[in-house]
């Protein structure tokens, strides 16, 4: 009986080892072939088995997801859908990769807008020339008891950078921001001596964490919502996250 158990354990270990070696061999082949055939795949961040048998996930540039066979002979770009569970596996994967630990946000590079008791937390990345952001800010007046960490995120052009600097360097950042976004009161020119390096750091942070549009909302549990979602939806996220 003991001999049989040992034999079964040996066979099981051998099976696991064989699968592991096969996966490593597949990864090495994929790396070699894709790099040789497509220059942008010279540096691959990660290769993992996808939930679909025979299909491997290839990740490059942080958040770009592709799929290939075990030899790297074929390449797919698009969403992998679990039709039985009705889940977009590619989208879920990118969301997971893009998660931000709220407690590690560089809040020194943001300014606070406190409404009501401010107990709930929300971070928002916005460009002052973003029309959707202006609509969002007007709707956010209906959301109470929240502290918003506003990250100026000037990605729409030079004028966005100039306006962001004027807002960042103003005496009352929150008021200047709200006056501009909700009432079109143009922020005054910033003092020449103002340190606005935070704006560059915000853009670098956004690139690192795949913040590709404005507004982008990040909630206390690390989840995010892209776009100008309505106040009622913001409330649902805040209730779930805080």
UniProtKB/TrEMBL annotation:
CDD domains listed in its UniProt record: DsbA_DsbC_DsbG
InterPro entries, sorted: DiS-bond_Isoase_DsbC/G, DiS-bond_isomerase_DsbC/G_N, DiS-bond_isomerase_DsbC/G_N_sf, Thiol:disulfide_interchange, Thioredoxin-like_fold, Thioredoxin-like_sf
Signal peptide stretch: 1-25
Pfam families, alphabetized: DsbC_N, Thioredoxin_2
Gene3D superfamilies: Disulphide bond isomerase, DsbC/G, N-terminal (3.10.450.70), Glutaredoxin (3.40.30.10)
Biological role: Required for disulfide bond formation in some periplasmic proteins. Acts by transferring its disulfide bond to other proteins and is reduced in the process.
The protein's name in its UniProt record: Thiol:disulfide interchange protein
Organism in which the protein naturally occurs: Variovorax rhizosphaerae
């Amino acid at each position: 009986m003991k001999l049989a158990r040992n034999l079964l354990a040996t066979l099981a270990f051998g099976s696991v080892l064989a699968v592991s070696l096969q996966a490593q061999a597949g990864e090495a082949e994929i790396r070699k072939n894709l790099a040789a055939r497509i220059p942008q795949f010279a540096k691959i961040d990660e290769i993992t088995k996808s939930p679909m048998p025979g299909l491997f996930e290839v990740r490059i540039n942080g958040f770009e997801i592709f799929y290939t066979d075990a030899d790297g002979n074929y390449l797919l770009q698009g969403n992998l859908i679990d039709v039985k569970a009705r889940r977009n596996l590619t989208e879920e994967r990118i969301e997971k990769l893009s998660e931000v630990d709220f407690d590690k946000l560089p809040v020194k590079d943001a300014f606070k807008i406190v409404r009501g008791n401010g107990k709930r937390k929300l971070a928002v990345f916005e460009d002052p020339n973003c029309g959707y952001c202006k609509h969002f800010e007007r709707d956010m007046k209906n959301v109470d008891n929240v502290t918003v960490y506003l990250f100026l995120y000037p990605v729409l052009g030079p004028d966005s950078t100039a306006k962001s600097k004027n807002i960042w360097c103003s005496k009352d950042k929150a008021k200047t921001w709200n006056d501009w976004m909700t009432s079109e009161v143009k922020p005054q020119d910033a003092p020449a001596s103002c340190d606005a390096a935070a704006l560059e750091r915000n853009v670098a942070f956004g690139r690192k964490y795949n913040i590709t549009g404005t507004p982008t909302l990040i909630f206390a549990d690390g989840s995010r919502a892209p776009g100008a979602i309505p106040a009622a939806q913001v409330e649902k996220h805040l209730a779930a996250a805080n």
